[in-house]
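A reminder from the course coordinator: this example appears on the midterm review sheet, so study it carefully.

Given structure:
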């Protein structure tokens, strides 16, 4: 039986995705409550390196190195969605993910 209250494909959206690339097996964690614990880099000091949901960017608009020709918002910058659900406008160049590295990578 199919639960009519769930949209088609909903069971896939509620899972992490595992895949393999040239550097080995990877897992893309779904955005869910508590997933930020996977960002702990020092297992001996989890409080020291844990990040709050309000500082973890999960999606943002396009940024560019071409002086504003490819920005979604002028002056240069983008709306950035954070894991706690708030959206913030971050100017370019600025904090990650609106920095030079991301602009170069998105321009490739």
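Designed residues:
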């Amino acid at each position: 039986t199919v639960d009519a209250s769930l949209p088609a494909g909903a069971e896939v959206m509620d899972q992490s995705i595992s895949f393999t690339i040239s550097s080995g097996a990877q897992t893309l964690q779904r955005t869910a409550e508590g997933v930020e614990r996977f960002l702990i880099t020092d297992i001996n000091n989890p409080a020291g390196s844990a990040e709050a949901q309000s500082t973890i960017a999960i999606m943002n608009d396009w940024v560019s190195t071409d002086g504003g020709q490819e920005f979604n918002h002028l002056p240069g910058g983008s709306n950035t969605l954070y894991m706690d659900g708030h959206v913030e406008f971050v100017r370019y160049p600025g904090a990650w993910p609106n920095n030079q590295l991301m602009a170069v990578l998105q321009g490739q």
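DSSP finds three helices and five strands in the chain. Helices lie at 10-13, 46-49, 100-107.
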